[in-house]
Amino acid sequence: MNRPVTQQHLSQLAELLAWMDQAPERRALAPEARTPEGLWWELLVGEEQAWVWLEGGRVEGYGALVPFWDGAALEGPIVRGGDGRALLAHLIRKARQRGYSALYAFPEARNQRVRSLLEGMGFSAQHTTYFYTIGRADLSCPVPQGFRIERVERCDPEVYRELYSRVEDGWSLRLRWTDEELCQHFLEAGVELFLAYSRKGQAVGLAELELGDKEAEVAYIGVVPEARGRGLGRALLGAVADWAFAQPTVELLRVRAHDHEKAAQTLYRGLGFREESAVMTYAMEF
User: Fold this and answer.
1) 258 falls within a domain
2) Is residue 273 scored above 90 in pLDDT?
3) Residues 94 and 150 in one domain
4) Which domain holds residue 100?
5) With helix as H, strand as E and coil as C, how does 43-82 read?
6) For the chain, how many structural domains are there in total?
7) What confidence tens digit (pLDDT) does each residue in 188-218 have?
8) φ/ψ of residue 51, rounded to 5
């Protein structure tokens, strides 16, 4: 049976999440916390609307709705006991009741059980995103002649939006941010913005780096169409990698590429990045 997550479920939910983590074929979008206390703050104090599936009084499934783009992102479904259809049907029904226009799910590509469940309930596969990692390495690269790369202290929202919309057709999330939200984001600790400029001073590429205590992630990287094919994207990657690994505690760099970004995938593999996971995006429109 489906029940809203309460404090009495948190210990068993933490154990269910640990079970999911043990194998790639079980993984899907899930809470970050892995302790009852952390889950309490994330699920019972936060904005998520979360439910568990109970079999014989035990937590054997989990799912939640999180506001995302024009609809909601689906955490899970994480299914250990039962076939999961009742849990997923419940989540779809709740999304409709809350007036969401679409529901998105992000299972690991190897999670055939949940992928089949989603497809059987009417979700459509959109694309696959590949995630790569590399340990401390020298990835520096000369900047092509006629260009320069600079770390930007303050974000110019107008320049940023134009670049963001031109370097990748599929990016849209940041275009909804206000000027204030964009500026505030790049003032946060650990968030760095690098821009590439042409000889005429026109911004033609960007790279965003998010620094953690031990890891760093390239959140976005791209070059406008007319500046491609000259090694500028490779030089941007080298610039952010140099900055990341200049931090003494950072031991790992993460990057990502969608399935249509073949050149980026080839570049990452050629530089020694290891594919860590592949996540599929599914969508259901209401």
Assistant:
1) no
2) yes
3) no
4) 2-129
5) HHHCCCEEEEEEECCEEEEEEEEEEECCEEEEEEEEECCC
6) 2
7) 999 999 999 999 999 999 999 999 999 999 9
8) -135, 155
Whole-prediction pTM value?
0.86
User: 250 to each of 132, 215, 257, how far by Cα in Å?
Assistant: 16, 5, 21
Starting at the earlier edge strand, list the strands of the sheet with 71-79.
Answer: 2-4, 49-55, 58-68, 71-79, 102-105, 274-285, 124-135, 252-258, 215-223, 203-211, 191-198, 147-152
Q: Find, among 261, 213, 267, 278, the residue nearest to 237 by Cα.
A: 267
More confident residue, 267 or 45: 267
Question: What CATH number does the domain containing 15 carry?
Answer: 3.40.630.30
Report helix, strand or coil for 235: helix
> Looking at per-residue confidence, does 67 or 169 come out higher?
67
The pair of structure tokens assigned to 176 is 């909804």
- The span from the CA of 190 to the CA of 211, in Å, is 5
Q: Tens digits of per-residue pLDDT, 38-82?
A: 999 999 886 669 999 999 899 999 999 998 877 999 999 999 988
Do strands 215-223 and 252-258 pair parallel, antiparallel, or not at all (unpaired)? parallel
Q: What is the pLDDT of residue 48?
A: 67
85-97 vs 112-120: helix crossing angle, rounded to 10: 50
- CA max distance for the chain: 69
